[in-house]
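Purpose: get a first structural picture of the assembly so the mutagenesis plan has something to point at.
Setup: two entries, given in the order below. No constraints added.
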Amino acid sequence: MSETSELHTLPARSGRAVRLKKGQSIRIINTHGQQVVDTWAFNAEDLREFMSMEHLRPTIGSIRPTAGHKLHTNRRRPILTFVEDTSPGIHDTLMAACDNYRYGLLGCTEYHDNCTDNLFAGMQRLGLTPPECPSPLNLWMNIPVHADGSTEWGVPVSKPGDHVVLRAEMDCVVAMSACPQDILPINGENLKPTEAHYQVLD
Amino acid sequence: MSETSELHTLPARSGRAVRLKKGQSIRIINTHGQQVVDTWAFNAEDLREFMSMEHLRPTIGSIRPTAGHKLHTNRRRPILTFVEDTSPGIHDTLMAACDNYRYGLLGCTEYHDNCTDNLFAGMQRLGLTPPECPSPLNLWMNIPVHADGSTEWGVPVSKPGDHVVLRAEMDCVVAMSACPQDILPINGENLKPTEAHYQVLD
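Result (C-alpha cells, whole complex):
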C-alpha cells in the first residue's frame, strides 16, 4: 500500500464520500482521538445494496466487528474487509445515525447538524443520492451492553492517531460523518466534535 | 379489551399483516411455545415510516424492549407500546430477517421460505408493498450477547400459550412472519417451525 496517499480532511460535524475500486482501501484516522466516525458503504453499481449492521451481526456472530472480519451487505455479500485497527477495537453497530428528530428529543429547538444529513450531503458531493440512511458502522463509538441488555453512552477508548483500514471487496462508495453529537459524551467528555482524516490506499 | 376477538392463524413458515387503528392492540400468541415471530409495524399513512430497531435501541437504552416500552420508528416517534408479555421477556432486536441469501450461506441450494419474503407476501394480501424489509422485532428469539460482543443462536425460553400485547400509537399496519428457520435452533431444538396465532383487541 502506498504510504504517500493524499491525506483528506473530514471536517468536524461534516460528511464526505469517496469511491473505492475493488482492492483499494481507505484508512480512516481518529486524528484527535475521541471522535466517532459514522461509516457506510454502498455498492457503486447499485446503491440499494449497502453494508448493513443487521446482516453483518449474524454473519460474524458478534455485535462488534474487529480486524479480520468481512463486512456484509443487505444481500449478505462482503463489501469491505476490516483489515487493520490500531485502537482497542471498540466500535458500535447498534445505534442509528443521529438525525434532527433525535436532537429534538434531546431538547434542541433549532436545527442541529447530524450524521443522517451528513451522509446525504457527502454523497451529494459525488452526485449520488443514497436510497436511505442505513444503520452505520459507528467507528470508535463506545456503547457498553450490560448483561440485562441495557446500553450506555460511553466515551471513546481510542487515542489520537488511531486508525482503521477497510479494503473494498467490490467497487463501492464509502461515506463518513464526523458525528456532531455534543450533548451526549460519545465524542468525549468535553462534548467537542472534531475533524478526522482519511486516505485512499492502492 | 374484548376477550372474544377472533383468533387468526399465522400459518407455519408464512406471513400475515393486519391494520390497527390508533388505540387498538394486537395479541400475538406463541401457541406451541418455541416459535419466533418476526414483527414489523408501518405507519398506515406513509409506509416509509416504520418501527426501527436501530432507532428504538437508543431511545429505550436497551437491546431488549420489555413490557412498558414504547417502540419507535425511523422518525423517532412511538408507533407501538409493548403493553404485556407473559413470557420471560427475551426477544431480539439485533438480527435481520432471514432471506433466501441467508439460506444460501447456510448451505441450501434451492429456495427456502424466509421472513423477508413473508413480510412482502403478508403485506401483499392487504394490497400493500413495503418500501423495504426493516430489521424486525424478533419476538421470542433468544440471542445471548456475551461480554466480548459475541452472539449465540439460543433456543426460545417461552412456553406454549405465551403472548405479547402491542398497542398502536398511530394508525398502522403490523406484519408478522412465523420464522421458517429450520437449520439453526432458534425455533427450538427440534428445528420444527410451527404456526402461531393473533387477535386484534379493541
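The helical segments of chain B are 53-60, 100-105, 115-124.
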